[in-house]
Amino acid sequence: MTLPLSGIHSYEHYVTDLDRAERFYTQTLGFKRIGQSTVAATAKDGTRRLVLAGGPKIHVILTKPETDWSVAAKYLALHPEGIGFLNFRVSSLDKAVNFLKPRRATFLYEPQVTSDRHGSMAQVAIATALDDVNIRLVDDSRYDGFGPTFDLTQKAGSIASPFGFLDVDHFTANVRTLVPLNAFYKSVLGFEKFWEIEFHTNDVNPNLPAGSGLYSEVWWHPASGIKFANNEPLAPFFRNSQIDIYCRDNHGSGIQHVALRVDNILQTMQTAHKAGCKFLKAGQGYYDRVGTRLENSGFRGKIAEDMQALKKNDILLDGGPKGYLLQIFSHELARQFGDVKGGPLFYEIIQRAGDDGFGGGNFRALFETIEIDQIALKKVADQLPLEVL
């Protein structure tokens, strides 16, 4: 028996400035508002919520606290803006609960069934090993809408993205230590390990006085294809790692980024640049090493896209025996907004051409790119004191 996950329903982004967040999503990422919380729900939950569609299978709930006692307010009292809930569909809530209870899942409340003119929806929520990030499980098989607490102006699933976003490829989380989170995926959710990688900047230059590294594991639910990539910092310069810097900026572990899948990343980037979305640069010399990296990874095919166009748009390229993939990563929202309260969340855009992995070479390249960026921001020290007696 496995957890009866069938897909991603949505994710909930807690924000302090609802207008600013909506402008970013709608103007910079091409999302569209399709609904908002009902008057009754706003009064009951102490929050105002907007539902934005970023594509046929991408829905974000922007949630702003209206009271100090709301769940969103409690989250934002501890963290900058960020993702507080991941909402997944299940084919049967009863089967999901029966699967999770013997595995000691920590339920936030008893299963709830709510109804309106669209039908009935069953749901429950559990805590995770990601600090204040929780998971909702939703059975909407008898519900023809988004959720009973929302009024919609357009049907969920009916919006095509002007950027070409199709669905959420994966979520990525950062923690200071992976063991508890891996145990949660395996022992509670029943996920399987999909992929792992470990590296350090000292692997390339052992004479560096400081550097950083990470260990990453990807866990997935094979039946639904839902994937989580998860990172922890590595010694010898643990506190120089961008993963530990994220945890400090976020005041705890959390969702580092959301990866949105597209079919034509060059076309997407044309639109994104015009919209003013800011992305990380690939870094000096990145494209000089692409051929060697692809050969070492076992890729023997042909890249359909023009290499100069990829370089012009700072799109990262990686591959393996099955094919290749193209990726690019945005600046974190704090940088997009010019306000630390925006938080360290960022977005990835990914196009897969046969490769269903995570691009080990790109992983390293991304890590080095972010590290260069953090050095420029003076978030990384040249030398760090060791925590010894």
**Coarse structural class:** alpha+beta
| Strand elements, count | 17
CATH class of the largest domain: Alpha Beta
- Uncertain ranges: none
Shape: globular
CATH architecture of the largest domain: Roll
Gyration radius (Cα, Å) is 21 Å
Order of helices and strands: EHEHEEHEHEEEEEHEHEEHEHHHEEHEH
Portion in helices = 25-40%
Strand content: 25-35%
- What kind of sheet is the major sheet? 9 strands, mixed
| Helical run tally | 12
**End-to-end gap:** 50 Å
Mean pLDDT: 92
By CATH, the topology of the largest domain is 2,3-Dihydroxybiphenyl 1,2-Dioxygenase, domain 1
Question: What's the CATH H-level homologous superfamily of the largest domain?
Answer: 2,3-Dihydroxybiphenyl 1,2-Dioxygenase, domain 1
Q: What is the number of independent domains?
A: 2
Walk across the major sheet and give the strand order.
6-7-8-5-1-4-3-2-9
Explain this structure.
With 389 residues, this protein is an alpha+beta fold. It folds into 2 domains: 5-152, 2,3-Dihydroxybiphenyl 1,2-Dioxygenase, domain 1, CATH 3.10.180; 167-376, 2,3-Dihydroxybiphenyl 1,2-Dioxygenase, domain 1, CATH 3.10.180. Helices cover 26% and strands 33% of the residues. It contains 12 helices and 17 strands. The protein has helices at residues 18-28, 39-45, 71-78, 93-100, 179-188, 201-204, 242-249, 265-275, 290-297, 307-312, 333-337, 360-376, and strands spanning 5-14, 32-37, 47-55, 58-65, 82-90, 112-116, 119-127, 134-139, 150-152, 167-174, 192-200, 213-221, 226-233, 254-262, 316-320, 323-329, 346-353. A 9-stranded mixed beta sheet has the order 6-7-8-5-1-4-3-2-9. An 8-stranded mixed beta sheet has the order 11-12-13-10-14-17-16-15, with helices on both faces. A hairpin with a 6-residue loop joins β7 and β8. The longest helix has 17 residues, at 360-376. It starts with a strand and ends in a 13-residue tail after the last helix.
